[in-house]
């Protein structure tokens, strides 16, 4: 089992990565002297597929344990779902001395993290990500949140976990589209990290889609190590460094909402990265040669993402509500070359609309016929 330390002042914690390591959960809870009143928030699909693992954990524990399952969709990442979690916690006698264990993908982690950060003014939390996307990105860094009306993640907190446990065995039951979602975030990291990592992802991306465990172990470790280095320096996005992790996401979040969440976050990230590459090139930040090279990496997935008819103006208007916007101006993370990005780049409506049109047309269903 590999271990990466996230060293944030006052909130340092380890990330454990391996195969079959979920069996170590009870031992790690004891090792870190966490509370024994355990409230599990789990994606109902994960429980249906891995009930034997969960039941084994519960049966071997002498602690108070409550299992709360959720239908983990973007529409349910809401204040009403959060209120229900609070109600169940209170009704079952959970208080300040509670440990929330989040088992699921990014949606489960987001809402469980927000619940943990606000219930009783903050209780302990452990993240057990079960999707590739959550393993490489959302489970580490402390961002929590819920959606409100038509704005994604607009309500949330920064709240670091007590530890993160990444068991690659959960990937064995992951649907193909969820693997693709993880690839979306991995592609983002390849552009942020550059060098050998970019080359590896470009040449061996099929190993990700085929869930090559040995390769994925290295990929997850690389992504988490890079994100850890960023979060340690800028936990709350105060210096601006952490903003680089939003590469492609200003477009992606708006695309998700315009699609009414009919495509998943990781798929939206791929299309958002395409738009970001177009905008970087249009603003003469990214040269033509690198633009074509990086775009070709994204287009390897185009037959697996079919958008149908989209509405650029609606996407643009949604982007103006993005929490990273200021003074009614949209700000972007754009790319000079892999490993070198710039933040807070403002772009006019014409440039943004053109980038939406050009970036998304690659993924329109009619393009595949």
Essential attributes:
single chain; 369 residues; alpha/beta; Rossmann fold; Dehydroquinate synthase-like, alpha domain; 7-stranded mixed β-sheet; two-stranded antiparallel ribbon; 13 helices; 11 strands; 46% helix
Written account of the structure:
This protein is α/β, with parallel strands linked by helices. The chain has two domains: 2-173, Rossmann fold, CATH 3.40.50.1970; 176-210 and 247-368, Dehydroquinate synthase-like, alpha domain, CATH 1.20.1090. Helices cover 46% and strands 17% of the residues. The protein has helices spanning 25-31, 44-59, 79-91, 106-118, 132-138, 176-193, 195-209, 213-233, 249-258, 265-282, 288-298, 312-319, 349-360, and strands at 2-6, 13-18, 37-43, 65-70, 98-104, 124-129, 146-148, 151-155, 163-167, 331-337, 340-346. Strands 1-2-9-6-5-3-4 form a seven-stranded mixed beta sheet. A two-stranded antiparallel ribbon has the order 7-8. A two-stranded antiparallel sheet has the order 10-11. Helix 6 runs parallel beside helix 10 (265-282). It starts with a strand and ends in a 9-residue tail after the last helix. The mean pLDDT is 95.
């Amino acid at each position: 089992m590999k271990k990466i330390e996230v060293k944030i002042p006052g909130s340092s914690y380890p990330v454990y990565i391996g195969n079959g390591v979920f069996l170590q959960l009870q031992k790690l809870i004891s090792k870190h002297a966490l509370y024994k009143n355990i409230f599990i928030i789990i994606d109902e699909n994960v429980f249906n597929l891995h009930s034997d693992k969960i039941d084994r954990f519960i049966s071997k524990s002498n602690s108070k344990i409550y299992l709360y399952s959720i239908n983990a969709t973007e529409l349910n990442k809401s204040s009403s779902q959060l209120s229900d979690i609070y109600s169940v916690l209170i009704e079952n006698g959970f208080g300040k001395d509670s440990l929330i264990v989040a088992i699921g993908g990014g949606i489960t982690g987001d809402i469980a993290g927000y619940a943990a950060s606000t219930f009783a003014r903050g209780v302990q939390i452990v993240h057990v990500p079960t999707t590739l996307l959550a393993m490489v990105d959302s489970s580490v860094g402390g961002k929590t949140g819920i959606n409100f009306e038509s704005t994604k993640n607009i309500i949330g907190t920064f709240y670091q976990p007590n530890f993160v446990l990444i068991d690659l065995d959960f990937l064995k039951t992951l649907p193909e589209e969820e693997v693709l979602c993880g690839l979306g975030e991995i592609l983002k990291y390849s552009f942020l990290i550059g060098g050998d990592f970019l080359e590896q992802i470009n040449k061996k991306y099929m190993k990700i889609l085929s869930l090559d465990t040995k390769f994925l172990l290295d990929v997850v470790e690389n992504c988490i190590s890079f994100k850890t280095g960023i979060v340690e320096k800028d936990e709350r996005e105060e210096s601006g460094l952490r903003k680089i992790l939003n590469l492609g996401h200003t477009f992606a979040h708006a695309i998700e909402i315009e699609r009414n969440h009919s495509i998943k976050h990781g798929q939206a990230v791929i299309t958002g990265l395409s738009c970001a590459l177009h905008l970087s090139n249009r603003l003469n930040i990214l040269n033509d040669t690198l633009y074509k090279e990086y775009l070709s990496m994204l287009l390897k997935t185009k037959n697996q993402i079919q958008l149908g008819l989209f509405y650029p103006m609606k996407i643009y208007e949604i982007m103006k509500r993005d929490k990273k916007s200021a003074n009614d101006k949209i700000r972007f993370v754009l790319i000079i070359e892999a490993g070198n990005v710039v933040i807070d780049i403002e772009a006019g409506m014409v440039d943004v609309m053109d980038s939406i049109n050009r970036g998304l047309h690659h993924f329109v269903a009619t393009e595949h016929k």
